Fold this protein.
Amino acid sequence: MAETQIEWTDATWNPVAGCTIMSAGCTNCYAMQMAKRLEAMRVEKYAGLTRKSGKRTIWNGVVNEDRSALDIPLKWKKPRKIFVNSMSDLFHEQVSDEFILCVWQVMRDTHRHSYQILTKRPDRMAKLIAAKVPDILPNVWLGTSVEDAEVISRIDHLRAVPAAIRFISFEPLIGPVGEIDLNSIDWAIVGGESGKDARPIKEEWIDEIHEQCADNNTAFFFKQWGTWGKDNKRRSKKANGREYRGRTWDEMPAPVAMAL
């Protein structure tokens, strides 16, 4: 699970597997179907993580901590941007504090890499890090997912997290987010949903985020239109592409220097 086609990272690292549907952004999560495929391929840590709901495969709430995966980043000598837990949520309630701190120690020991952690549970992230992580690691980027206005309260929890870089993934963007507070938010990723059941994205929803990023000096990254294009027509994700306002947007947050 190292190499990835995700545009804003270089590799994925999954010390945790399994999750729970939490909000509307989870409905068509690619990781649920991927977990089922990996189980069929006899990858042990993905066994028993999903169930059938009608014709859909969904998480069943089982979460596995994989201690054997903890040392993987230590073996990668070339610096990488690493998306942590593309197949789970590190701050899921079933992941122990002790295991999260083990992940933190790996990130502390491998400062050549940059780690991107994305959660739908920023409230737990803020409480745990404030209480149990003594240092702010400059190579660790902490983020939350916001798919529409219903969950913008996650941004306030994210802002409370002691972090060198904070970011928001507005993907899949399935509704307008309205006016949001991007103070102390370094980076925003925006993207439409892909797949056969994808919900449309509207250009005006992107516009309001882009304009607020510009007003707050927040780096803006447009990942994709997804299944529904700018013209609201359904095509392949590749055909719809990544162009927004006549160009691609690959802005990244400024790196934070390591203390000597």
